[in-house]
Amino acid sequence: MDAAPPAKPGLDRLAHLEHLSSRLIDKSWREFMAPYLAEFVGTFLLTLTYLCNASAGDPTWAITSNAFMMMLTMYAFGHISAGNMNPCISLAMWLARRYTFYTALAYCFWQVAGAAAAAFLYYRFAVAEVDLGPKPGFGWMEVMIVE
């Protein structure tokens, strides 16, 4: 019998790790959770960027920074989850019959969870507070209508 050529040590170890990871996490589970985790991470990054820019006090580059973070999340996660990153967009996709009710609900849940995690992280470690309420001259009703 011919013996197989010896495998390179690094490749053998990598194949073993891939085998273990495929046994630990079923691929169907990873494929199922990928869009929701993409929405979580994308919304987390966007919210953290907005909070950091709001606390900086200098609006000169805040808009550019927010736009670049939005672009980054769209390029990074758009092919995985369509890159909604906002519960209002997920709701609009459900109303347009692009998503089922349960898919839109799951997207909204993970987006709110990502935003809450970013807010928790920011308020846990930040030194400045951010006023996120309506601007002077506007109330919460106007905010809700616009949103």
UniProtKB/TrEMBL annotation:
GO molecular function: water channel activity
Transmembrane intervals: 32-51, 63-80, 101-123
Membrane topology: Multi-pass membrane protein
GO annotations of cellular component type: plasma membrane
Xref: InterPro entries: Aquaporin-like, Aquaporin_transptr, MIP
Keyword Acetylation among record annotations: no
Pfam families: MIP
SUPFAM superfamilies reported for this sequence: Aquaporin-like
Family: Belongs to the MIP/aquaporin (TC 1.A.8) family.
Protein name: Aquaporin
Organism: Alexandrium catenella
Top-level taxonomy: Eukaryota, Sar, Alveolata, Dinophyceae, Gonyaulacales
